[in-house]
From TrEMBL:
This is Transporter. It comes from the Bacteria. InterPro entries: ABC-2_transporter-like. It comes from Actinoplanes ianthinogenes. The lineage of its organism: Bacteria, Bacillati, Actinomycetota, Actinomycetes, Micromonosporales. Keywords: Membrane, Transmembrane, Transmembrane helix. The keyword Transmembrane helix applies. PANTHER family: INTEGRAL MEMBRANE TRANSPORT PROTEIN, SLR0610 PROTEIN-RELATED. The chain crosses the membrane at residues 25-47, 53-75, 118-137, 149-173, 194-214, 234-254.
Length: 266
């Protein structure tokens, strides 16, 4: 109960500081939804030049974009602020976090509560809802569960990528660009049918790192389409297991990184 009160106090302080400047907050809320809007506009522009992309129609591709947009927006809203870890490591402010009798990760997340990204979450689920309405899906109990679980699994998977990428700062403080390549690059990768990518890129990101199970495989299962790349139909329902595995790896990397951390003394 004491920990919950401490977390509530941290969150309350952040909320009060953000809403104190209402105009700035409103501008940030509207500008932050821009990246998700551009993701959808990119799909629209691509389909003005072609009827299919990697063997998928606009509605089918938009379903993958919608799952990714919704899941990534939730991950970015809840965990995304961890990418400021490198700033705390460099400035030495992580020391103040570690001396408190609370786990470090929740403290860091609440110290920069990204309320400005809330509208992006709403927009992501709107895109997913539109994509579902454009496709003819034979709804079964399994697919109803899948459409509920897929965005959440995507959120857990992307959250794990955020934590792993940020944890690189424990060993390499200037790893921000490399980390962004996997977080925001992974979001872009998962927003399209993976059949559009070459074999090397596909094998590395889609299957070795698991990005194929973020949106592509769940979308195939929802649409009832066989995988052109040969994976069985049950692969579409494996996204929660892949997300759990990614979360386990992220937790391990975070714990090892914390033990490896050495203060700058500043």
């Amino acid at each position: 109960m004491g920990e919950l009160r401490a977390y509530a106090a941290l969150a309350g302080a952040q909320i009060r500081s953000v809403v104190s400047y209402r105009t700035s907050f409103l501008v940030e809320v509207l500008s932050n939804v821009g990246s998700t809007v551009f993701d959808v506009l990119t799909v629209l522009v691509l389909f003005r030049a072609t009827d299919t992309l990697g063997g998928f129609t606009f509605a089918e591709a938009l379903l993958m974009t919608g799952i990714t947009a919704a899941g990534f927006a939730v991950a970015d809203f809840t965990i995304g602020s961890i990418d400021r870890l490198k700033t705390h490591v460099r400035a030495g402010t992580l020391d103040a976090v570690l001396v408190r009798p609370l786990p470090a990760l929740p403290q860091l997340l609440l110290m920069d509560l990204p309320l400005r990204k809330a509208l992006r979450v709403v927009f992501g689920f709107v895109v997913l809802g539109v994509a579902i309405s454009l496709n003819t899906i034979d709804w079964t109990p399994a697919r109803l569960v899948l459409i509920t679980v897929a965005p959440l699994s995507c959120a857990v998977f992307m959250s794990a990528i955020f934590v792993i990428s940020a944890s690189l700062a424990f060993w390499w403080v200037d790893s921000g660009e490399l980390g962004s390549a996997f977080t925001y690059g992974g979001r872009d990768f998962a927003s399209y049918p993976i059949t559009v990518y070459g074999p090397v890129f596909r094998n590395l990101f889609a299957y070795t790192l698991g990005f194929a199970f973020v949106a592509y495989q769940p979308a195939l299962a929802l649409l009832g389409r066989p995988d052109p790349l040969g994976l069985p139909a049950w692969a579409g329902f494996a996204s929660p297991l892949v997300a759990l595995a990614a979360a386990t790896v992220a937790a391990t990397v975070w714990r090892v990184g914390l033990r490896h951390y050495r203060s700058t003394g500043s």
